[in-house]
Amino acid sequence: MAKTILIVDDSTTLRQVVSIALKGAGYDVIEGSDGKDALAKLTGQKVHLIISDVNMPNMDGFTFVSEVKKLPAYKFTPIIMLTTEAGEEKKAAGQAAGAKAWMVKPFKPEQMLNAVSKLILP
């Protein structure tokens, strides 16, 4: 059975690029247009990994990660922050919120798939 990854980004184009790479590698994909939308899509189904942007309307990535970590079903779901932010302060905030990895845009699909394969839940 394919593993499911939730992609959270307010850019439709970016979600498509990530989705194509992940589907090509055999993963199932759920998409959220921002933190609020993505939280609404976490309805108890198994999600093996979350990839989230930081800067989004309605609910930013840090708030989203903090909220996800409060949900018993997703408390241990690994989260990769995928963002244009490269500053140490932002990285520290992401880690404090519960993110496991930090990837800076633009990224190469191979880099992302490599990170996904290392972090995804069994």
UniProtKB/TrEMBL annotation:
InterPro entries hit by this protein: Bact_response_regulator, CheY-like_superfamily, Sig_transdc_resp-reg_receiver
Protein's GO biological process: phosphorelay signal transduction system
Name the record gives this protein: Response regulator
Keyword Phosphoprotein in annotation: yes
Occurrences of domain Response regulatory (ranges): 4-120
UniProt cross-references to Pfam families, sorted A to Z: Response_reg (PF00072)
UniProt KW keywords: Phosphoprotein
